[in-house]
Amino acid sequence: MLSRVDETVADNAAARLHAFIADGNYGAGDRLPPERQLIELLGMGRGTLRRALKQLERDGLIWRHVGKGTFVARRHGGCGDLLANLARQMTPVRMMRARLCIEPAIAREAAINASREATAKIDIAVKRARAAASWAEYERQDDFFHRAVAEATDNLLLIGLFETLNRVQREVAWSAVERSTPRPPPDHSSFAEHATVARAIAAHDTEAAFQGMRAHLGSVSARLFGDA
């Protein structure tokens, strides 16, 4: 029988695996990468991954065929349709305003509950974003940073809320953002902003974490939309 800590680890792993499937645009019937590759991609142990796979299988999100692999299950309406409909009605500006309302509070909660493992994961995301060799890679690492902050709350409801927000954001019709460089410049403002949030969470400084995330998202909003 799993302890409460083990159950939390398993639930968080399942949320990460679910997010990986959504981020990778895997559709019904698509086969997921083999276990050894998922272990590397998700940064979790074999036992943790297998518990996550079992949980998603119980939830009807995947199915497994011995000798063939793990596949994404067909969804029948429900939450997916609701999120798709919500995304169609959402503008990029309103999407950013929603993030400004929610993510600073998530960062504050992360500052209360973050473990050493969680803060280390946030630090890795900060470094990977700074080292990104392209804008596409930077955006992946930026997403990893924000997800790591949410996971640091150790609160499944807040993690689920972040994932819902993130899924809607991916579906919103963003206007093409013109880039003047092939990769983020060394003085890209988000680098320092990420580091500020990471330090605040590691120091368990709730107000600094809240204000740091709010300043970061405000900076992104101003860069994309001006004063909208």
Shape: globular
Order of helices and strands: HHHEEHHHHHHH
Oligomer, anyone?
Answer: single chain
**What's the total helix number?**
10
Sheet having the most strands: 2 strands, antiparallel
- CATH fold description of the largest domain: Four Helix Bundle (Hemerythrin (Met), subunit A)
| Nearest-integer average pLDDT | 85
Rg, rounded, reads 18 Å
Q: What is the CATH C level class of the largest domain, in words?
A: Mainly Alpha
Protein name: DNA-binding transcriptional regulator, FadR family
GO molecular function, one term: DNA-binding transcription factor activity
Domain HTH gntR-type: 7-75
Pfam family, one: GntR
Please explain how this structure is put together.
With 228 residues, the chain is mostly helical. The protein is globular. It has helices at 4-23, 35-42, 46-58, 79-88, 92-113, 116-131, 135-151, 156-171, 189-202, 206-225, and strands at 62-65, 69-72. The longest helix is centred in the middle third of the chain and has 22 residues, at 92-113. The N and C termini lie far apart (52 Å). A hairpin with a 3-residue loop joins strand 1 and strand 2 (69-72). It folds into two domains: 4-72, Arc Repressor Mutant, subunit A, CATH 1.10.10.10; 87-225, Four Helix Bundle (Hemerythrin (Met), subunit A) (Up-down Bundle), CATH 1.20.120. The chain is 68% helix and 4% strand. The protein contains ten helices and two strands, in the order αααββααααααα. It holds the Pfam family GntR. GO terms for molecular function: DNA binding; DNA-binding transcription factor activity.
